[in-house]
Amino acid sequence: MDLTTLERLPLWIGGRAVPALTQRYGEVTNPATGEVIRHVPLGNAADVDAAAKAASAALPAWRASPPLRRARILMRFRELMEANKKSLAAIVTQEHGKTLADAEGSITRGIEVIEFATGIPHLLKGEFSENVGTDVDSWSLRQPVGVCAGITPFNFPAMVPMWMFPVALACGNTFILKPSERDPTLSLRMAELLTEAGLPDGVFNVVHGDKEAVDAILAHPDIRAISFVGSTPIARYIYETGAAHGKRVQALGGAKNHAVVMPDADIAFAADAIIGAGYGSAGERCMAISAVVAVGDAGDALVAELATRAKSVKVGPGDAAGTEMGPVVTCAARDRIVGYIDSGVTEGATLVVDGRGPRVPGHENGFFVGPTLFDAVTPAMAIYRDEIFGPVLSVVRVASLTEAIELVNRNPYANGAALFTRSGHAARRFQEDVDVGMLGINVPIPVPMAFYSFGGWKNSLFGDLHVHGMDGVRFYTRGKAVTARWPDDGSAAPGFHMPLMG
């Protein structure tokens, strides 16, 4: 293939597609075939500055527009996303590899955040207190932060950006999205649909890139707030660097999500749920289950059920009928995951199902890793300690719920955890004692609905506020308190003492 003839993606600045100023380009591949399908610009500081200038120029009029007007534009955007869902999902599958059904589902979860954001006139209401002093009233306002930026990961090129920009826009901010350079095309399509919905030019902008673009965003003086989702080392870097530049930052990091299975659980139900949570999207989810904690007598039966189901998962290209698990996103990701499987074997875990080198006819150059299951895993092993971000389940055996909770709480990540049980007492104890931000009881992937907020604890979150929900509104607005008196006779002139009310 002559790679020089491939499409070069543009940026989206000021309401239109524009060529990048950078001279650096990266390759976008189809993970199912291994083929390069287009090139993406790796934006530089000049590209970021152009987007920031466009966003700054659009900010005064946008923040001054009534919240209801902003909400109505988002309502139209929601309708367009729904109408184009299948074609949008096809873009996700082509560049990420996940199945079409999974891609559609992730877009639906993003649309739910748009629906939440359309209620912004109600969510921006402040509080009012009459006569806090003689003829003195006080009230609160929530006002936009300014130009905001989102730096988003490859695994959810639609959903994660929609955790951010609908809420930011509804609150009256303008926005710059830096999507993953691995699957960047969908961000441009969403920009087109926002413009079609009536969003003014410059309110939403897209700059592609790698670390150079990220560092330019972190340092740019006109960008006031940054949202990030990605690995823990980068989340820490984003948080520390952005804060050092005086920016408001929310940075969601990595995860090592546990599913605890009690002896009284419905083992078949638990196994089905864990298979979907561990191998869906090839394990490339920040809420994927990767550590299975078998309590007491649950172990043997659970491992047997997991093995049977893992061996039956149909691996193939995400756009093929019947495919349950597609490829991982890149060749490097495949090799890294296979390296962890090798490590698990070397360190003495029992390899129950080996996902290395699956055969996918007609797609021999694709980046495939099959479902992999380990038993007899210990916390000292790399397959337990590290976020693998691939289709690898590790079963750790413990004697009691107490040991299971202690195991979960010793982990430095604290994004999600699930418990499978029929015991209300065990469930209540789990939800009270586990130090994790999002919990599921007989629910393997406890991603909250849009009207709650998404985020973990410990090394899974840097910053005080989670994304979407009311935390999202708080992040993308600043509080202001107003105290007012309207004297008509000049008798209330201030003195030199601390003003008192009453």
Tell me about the largest β-sheet.
7 strands, mixed
Q: What CATH architecture of the largest domain would you give?
A: 3-Layer(aba) Sandwich
- Would you count the extended β strands for me? 22
CATH topology of the largest domain: Aldehyde Dehydrogenase, Chain A, domain 1
Main β-sheet, spatial strand arrangement: 14-15-16-13-12-18-19
Into how many domains do the coordinates divide?
2
SSE topology sketch:
Blueprint: E1 11-13, E2 16-18, E3 25-30, E4 35-41, H1 45-64, H2 67-83, H3 85-96, H4 100-117, H5 120-123, E5 128-133, E6 136-144, E7 147-151, H6 159-170, E8 174-178, H7 185-196, E9 204-206, H8 211-219, E10 223-229, H9 232-244, E11 248-252, E12 257-261, H10 267-279, E13 289-295, H11 298-312, H12 331-346, E14 350-353, E15 372-375, H13 382-385, E16 392-398, H14 401-410, E17 413-414, E18 416-420, H15 424-433, E19 438-441, E20 457-458, E21 461-462, H16 469-475, E22 477-485
Parallel strand pairs: 7-8, 7-10, 8-9, 10-11, 12-13, 12-18, 13-16, 15-16, 18-19
Antiparallel strand pairs: 1-2, 3-4, 5-6, 6-22, 11-21, 14-15, 17-20
